[in-house]
Amino acid sequence: MQLARQVAFVVLRAVTTSDAYANLLLPREIERAGIAGPDAALATELAYGTLRRLGTYDAIIRAAAGRELDTIDPPVLDALRLGAHQLLATRVAPHAAVNESVQLAREESGPRAGGFANAVLRRIGQDDVTTWIARVTEAARSDDERLSIETAHPVWIIRALRRALAAEGRDGELTDLLAADNAAPTVTMAALPGLAEPDGERTPYSPTGFRLGGGDPEPAVRRSGGRVRVQDEGSQLVALALTRLTPVAPGERWLDLCAGPGGKTALLAAEALAGGAALDANEIAHARAGLVRRAIAPVPLEVEVHERDGRELASERAGAYDRILVDAPCTGLGALRRRPEARWRKQPSDVAELATIQAQLLDAALTALKPGGVVAYVTCSPHLAETAAIVREVVERRGDEVEELDARAALQAVALTPLDLPAPADGSGHAQLWPHRHGTDAMFLALLRKRV
């Protein structure tokens, strides 16, 4: 258990000091520590659980310490966060949670820091999480600020999620959504169509999805030669909605414009292979382009992976493609279950910066379409400024050249069982998946056809 705590602490430190991504770093640290089974599971729970509830724990630590967080040595603060999570949200024995966290603080910052951490954690351990939350929310200046502390979501994200739900007439689901963001997601697998078969419990919606009985999925990925892989069910569905929108005509040409890290690209490649289509991929970041090449390697289809600005590439290839996937860079607010640190790392200003790029990518993709071709605009975010607003802006600018298709019907057509997809109040055809409603990431999909 001590090694598991050390692994979780290393991940916390890397996230807070160098903006590391927990989902990329944690597996490497687990392997480096040589832990597996229950210890690896504990390290995962400690790292992800602490990051998910960071805002709540910080409010409790501030109250228990009687001082502002910026006056606490950063390594000590991370040790306190790790200890608070164990005390308030796990079955770890309180004495172990305190002693090991104190040891981490002492090793990082010396004996006095250890004494300080001991006093703070013992104070936290005197009450349960419900009592602490009631105490620290007494001074909340608004209902949203209170909800922010209770659910560990920044206020601006709470308001954005409420607006997105309200656009479907479902704002009463906000509490369920916030709770789903704080629950550890089930690992979902994808079997590349035509190359592998789902080998486990089938997922409710995706025809390529399944779940293993538990444990590390990596051995199953290796045994399959990469023909099965970890992939969120929502990610599978939005890719298949494009590839199966209409029967594939041999000789079609497809493009994955923002392909990294390659999960959707691999699905597109398998579908293109089955239908006799050709596929190009593009990813501007060199490291992520390498991940794309690795993801598509198991598919016996020649796919050229470009490393260019997608806006330039698409604009230069006017009228070249029948189907284009624009999996646009976004805030990632739809994947807070799996990337918990994103909620603390992103700011409202990021939305405006990304929206400019998103609109330009979608506009360029429409230029690259053949008449009659279709673009799937996808984000792993439900924020209306990254979803409905982008589609509306581009469609209005393009005028009669473009028509929006019914993305909800396209998803229903590929789903194994009916999806609960209410129509947006604006009458548009786009679709939004949700973790609390569908058990998927909050994937947004719009389908735009260039008129003949």
From TrEMBL:
<protein>
    <submittedName>
        <fullName>rRNA small subunit methyltransferase B</fullName>
    </submittedName>
</protein>
<dbReference type="InterPro" id="IPR001678">
    <property type="entry name" value="MeTrfase_RsmB-F_NOP2_dom"/>
</dbReference>
<keyword id="KW-0489">Methyltransferase</keyword>
<feature type="active site" description="Nucleophile">
    <location>
        <position position="380"/>
    </location>
</feature>
<dbReference type="Pfam" id="PF01029">
    <property type="entry name" value="NusB"/>
</dbReference>
<dbReference type="InterPro" id="IPR049560">
    <property type="entry name" value="MeTrfase_RsmB-F_NOP2_cat"/>
</dbReference>
<dbReference type="InterPro" id="IPR006027">
    <property type="entry name" value="NusB_RsmB_TIM44"/>
</dbReference>
<feature type="domain" description="SAM-dependent MTase RsmB/NOP-type">
    <location>
        <begin position="149"/>
        <end position="451"/>
    </location>
</feature>
<feature type="binding site">
    <location>
        <begin position="258"/>
        <end position="264"/>
    </location>
    <ligand>
        <name>S-adenosyl-L-methionine</name>
    </ligand>
</feature>
<feature type="binding site">
    <location>
        <position position="309"/>
    </location>
    <ligand>
        <name>S-adenosyl-L-methionine</name>
    </ligand>
</feature>
<dbReference type="GO" id="GO:0003723">
    <property type="term" value="F:RNA binding"/>
</dbReference>
<dbReference type="Pfam" id="PF01189">
    <property type="entry name" value="Methyltr_RsmB-F"/>
</dbReference>
<feature type="binding site">
    <location>
        <position position="283"/>
    </location>
    <ligand>
        <name>S-adenosyl-L-methionine</name>
    </ligand>
</feature>
<feature type="binding site">
    <location>
        <position position="327"/>
    </location>
    <ligand>
        <name>S-adenosyl-L-methionine</name>
    </ligand>
</feature>
<feature type="region of interest" description="Disordered">
    <location>
        <begin position="207"/>
        <end position="227"/>
    </location>
</feature>
<keyword id="KW-0694">RNA-binding</keyword>
<comment type="similarity">
    <text>Belongs to the class I-like SAM-binding methyltransferase superfamily. RsmB/NOP family.</text>
</comment>
<keyword id="KW-0949">S-adenosyl-L-methionine</keyword>
<dbReference type="GO" id="GO:0001510">
    <property type="term" value="P:RNA methylation"/>
</dbReference>
<dbReference type="GO" id="GO:0006355">
    <property type="term" value="P:regulation of DNA-templated transcription"/>
</dbReference>
<keyword id="KW-0808">Transferase</keyword>
<dbReference type="GO" id="GO:0008173">
    <property type="term" value="F:RNA methyltransferase activity"/>
</dbReference>
<dbReference type="InterPro" id="IPR023267">
    <property type="entry name" value="RCMT"/>
</dbReference>
<dbReference type="InterPro" id="IPR035926">
    <property type="entry name" value="NusB-like_sf"/>
</dbReference>
<dbReference type="InterPro" id="IPR029063">
    <property type="entry name" value="SAM-dependent_MTases_sf"/>
</dbReference>
